[in-house]
Design brief:
alpha+beta; 23% helix; 324 residues; seven-stranded antiparallel sheet; four-stranded antiparallel sheet; 3 domains
């Protein structure tokens, strides 16, 4: 399928920004300094366009598949040592996001060294033993690299007949795990940045409670963090042709703000004006219906529900529970 002749890519926007700065439109004659200035202006203008509005085209949908606990083989644990060695098995790739259950106690896993060894977050304090049974349960799941924030419930795929998961905080997940240690179908989740672990990443992961007892498919919608820059290697922008002119105008305004002494107030006004028509177009893409207006907190319409904090209160008449 061919792109519209009116679509503007990096090369066209580059030339208009060059013209705005008073440079020749022959890009082969631009010095490296001028090329850098144009690239910086395009990056800022494009970035400010993306931040100007909650664009529908920056919405994505994904599935997450939960993991069955792993218990193949046996382990060796050593007193005052964080290393746990596995025999006749292979630690799964997700082991660093797991919790080791041994002797009725949970141990957070800090890292996966290789197929045979993992490191616990704290040194094991107990009797050294070999050939021991265990279970590795998965607590955390990687979210997509472009995940920005949730825009929907985390919902089970239709075949499971479960209601949506309740979003809570990582601290609440930790609190709940102190009183409920079994695996089951998850009914709560939390989101936390992976940078908490000192990793060189700014991505997120999902925590589930209870930890999953088997494979489930969860579906969700999320706000995208723009990952691709508009440069010579990525020719086209987010949002497709209807927003091309707005993005070009934003990049031209950024050039004037950065290098032509335009005031911040005037720049912000130019960005708002440049985006006005694109915002109107984007609103036309918005859904006409958001679905049934209910949060399912009463559990109606679902089967097999369990709510850990629900004490199952009923209203009785003459000590009899009426038929529902």
């Amino acid at each position: 399928m061919a792109d519209s002749d009116l679509a503007l890519g990096y090369d066209e926007i580059y030339l208009e920004v060059a013209d705005t700065l008073g440079y020749t439109r022959d890009s082969t004659k631009h010095s490296s300094e001028r090329q850098d200035r144009i690239a910086v202006a395009i990056k800022k203008g494009y970035s400010d366009f993306l931040r100007e509005y909650d664009w529908t085209f920056l919405t994505a949908y994904d599935n997450l598949t939960t993991t069955t606990p792993y218990s193949t083989g046996t382990i060796t644990v050593t007193n005052d040592d964080a290393t746990v060695t596995l025999a006749t098995g292979t630690w799964p790739s997700w082991a660093a996001q797991g919790v080791l259950v041994y002797g009725g106690t949970e141990y957070e896993v800090a890292s996966r060294t290789d197929n045979a060894d993992i490191e616990l977050a704290d040194a094991f304090q107990g009797t050294t033993a070999a050939g021991e049974s265990y279970e590795l349960r998965r607590l955390a799941y990687d979210l997509p690299d472009d995940f920005g924030q949730p825009q929907s419930f985390m919902a089970y795929s239709g075949e499971y007949g479960r209601r949506e998961l309740v979003r809570t905080s990582p601290a609440e997940i930790s609190r709940l795990r102190t009183t409920y240690t079994d695996t089951s179908y998850p009914d709560r989740y939390a989101i936390r940045p992976k940078a908490f672990a000192g990793t060189a990443t700014q991505t997120y992961e999902l925590l589930l409670f209870p930890m999953s007892d088997t494979v489930y498919i969860l579906r969700y919608q999320y706000k995208v963090v723009a990952m691709q820059d508009l440069d010579g290697t990525t020719s086209f922008h987010y949002g497709a042709q209807p927003h091309s002119q707005s993005i070009q105008d934003c990049c031209m305004a950024a050039a004037k703000y950065l290098y032509k002494n335009m005031s911040l107030a005037a720049y912000r006004e130019d960005i708002a004006l440049a985006c006005q028509r694109s915002i109107e177009r984007d609103k036309e893409q918005a859904p006409s219906s958001l679905g049934h207006n209910a949060d399912h907190s009463d559990g109606r319409g679902f089967s097999g529900l369990r709510h850990l904090d629900d004490s199952s209160r009923y209203v009785t008449v003459d000590s009899v529970i009426p038929d529902l």
